[in-house]
Amino acid sequence: MQLYSFFNSSTSYRVRIALALKGLDHVYVPVNIRKFEHRATDYLARNPSGGVPTLVDGDMNLGQSLAIIDYLDSTHPQPRLLPQDTLLRARVLELSSVIACDIHPVNNLRILRYLQKVLQVTPEQKDAWYRHWIAEGLTAVENLLARHGHGPYCFGDAPTLADCCLVPQIANALRMECDISAYPKAMAVYAHCNAQPAFQRAQPSRQPDYTA
Amino acid sequence: MQLYSFFNSSTSYRVRIALALKGLDHVYVPVNIRKFEHRATDYLARNPSGGVPTLVDGDMNLGQSLAIIDYLDSTHPQPRLLPQDTLLRARVLELSSVIACDIHPVNNLRILRYLQKVLQVTPEQKDAWYRHWIAEGLTAVENLLARHGHGPYCFGDAPTLADCCLVPQIANALRMECDISAYPKAMAVYAHCNAQPAFQRAQPSRQPDYTA
Fold first, then answer.
1. Cβ of A66 and B97 within 8 Å?
2. Does residue B50 form part of some domain?
3. Cα A67 from chain centroid?
4. Which of A203, B27, B73, B99 has the lowest tally of Cβ within 10 angstroms?
5. pLDDT per residue of chain A (212 residues) written in tens, 0 to 9
6. How many domains does chain B have?
7. Cα→Cα distances B118→A80, A124, A126, B33, B122, Å
8. Which residue range or ranges hold the GST N-terminal domain (chains A, B) (predicted)?
9. Domain check: are A109 and A190 in the same one?
10. A20 and A110: one domain?
């Protein structure tokens, strides 16, 4: 398999965690989204939505991190990241969706670019935007963990899709210097995950295209 | 079951389609997000992410439309909206994610409100924002359908999660008077779906809280 990834993309980071947890060897192909390499014709031929990551498995090119992780869970089910228990699975998908649908999409690079280049917001307005959606989203995450979570991972003793989503999102919040003091449960999960070798291997700083 | 829904919410609309396709009776509980009823304490107790829809099944309250539809597919598998075939399932989730993660989150009510109230963009800037993300996202959808789709639904003769996501998104685009001439495949799927009684029952205008 090949993973088209950008070190600092949190959707790529999610899939890197899943690959590492499953111990799946793959070739890492860097796509520099800061240089618009994800909009190049040959990349769009692989992934019409023009985002990272893309997973290549044989002659299949698959985009969208949640679709990729679901695919990996079907083709390489150990360890399962989407539980088979109906209620647990629902909780995992609910929390993952808060991150993947409510938080990340409004704070990613293309949105911040539009705010700056088209709407010409100030750096302070951009940062306030970022922190607003982080605060709203992580408050929801914290409340869901308080209600349904039981550590050390989001939902028990084994990592799931929820952890694959949470860790990159918290890493982004820290990088953007958001106040994370109101999310002790999420931060405890983050700390636990980052003590595990698979999560460490997936970190941006460990990728071949990393730049400080 | 109970569905907490707003007639004009496209995430609620997705779940209404799924419920209708599966023929599942439920009580419809309106939540007027224009009046911030989704931020009321009693609603947040049901759904800490403070969005619509919420599905209540027995003593379970579940938020997030994709998690809800996956749950319904587990508990009421006929007809299946998430195919069991690995590759088809991947394509369904990929296209659904383009809509649920790339298009809808940046154009929903809370974002448009922030643009207007906090960033004080003009009505023209707000409309341009909306149409920009619709155009970018539906171009991806159209290209994915061209590559992997085969009608009359997004992926063949049976509706899937992809159709549950596509129809409300196209309805939004039409409501916002976006140019949809570049998406004939998506529009053909939309027309086919809207000729089916289950999709018709889920339409905003057919909900008890509908207002023109």
1. yes
2. yes
3. 12
4. B27
5. 999 999 999 999 999 999 999 999 999 999 999 999 999 999 999 999 999 999 999 999 999 999 999 999 999 999 999 999 999 999 999 999 999 999 999 999 999 999 999 999 999 999 999 999 999 999 999 999 999 988 899 999 999 999 999 999 999 999 999 999 999 999 999 999 999 999 999 999 999 999 98
6. 2
7. 42, 12, 11, 19, 12
8. 1-80
9. yes
10. no
Please report which helix (H) or strand (E) contains residue A139, including its range: helix A123-148
How far off is chain A from B135, nearest CA to CA, in Å? 11
Judgement on whether residues A192 and A107 belong to the same structural domain of the protein: yes
pLDDT > 70 fraction of chain B, expressed in percent and rounded: 100
DSSP H/E element including B88? helix B86-97
Cβ-Cβ contacts under 8 Å between A and B: the total is 133
How many helices (H) and strands (E) in chain B?
9, 4
- Per-residue model confidence (pLDDT) at position B151: 87
Whether residues B144 and A49 touch (CB distance < 8 A) is answered with yes
Query: Are A64 and A90 in the same domain?
Result: no
Is A130 domain-assigned?
yes
Domain containing A7 equals 2-79
Look-up: residue for tokens 């998104």?
A: B169
- ipTM score of complex: 0.97
Collect all residues of chain B within an 8 Å Cβ-Cβ radius of residue A139: 48
B143-177 confidence digits (pLDDT tens):
999 999 888 999 999 999 999 999 999 999 999 99
A185 and A105 part of one domain: yes
Residue whose token pair is 């980052």: A194
Instruction: Indicate if A180 and A95 belong to the same structural domain.
Output: yes
Nearest to B105 among A102, A115, A143 (CB): A102
pLDDT in tens, A127-183: 999 999 999 999 999 999 999 988 899 999 999 999 999 999 999 999 999 999 999
Last residue of a domain, one of B42, B77, B112: B77
The CATH number assigned to the domain holding A177 equals 1.20.1050.10
**Residue B94, token pair as written in the block:** 């990929």
Chosen domain end from B77, B110, B138? B77
In a domain, residue A43? The reply is yes
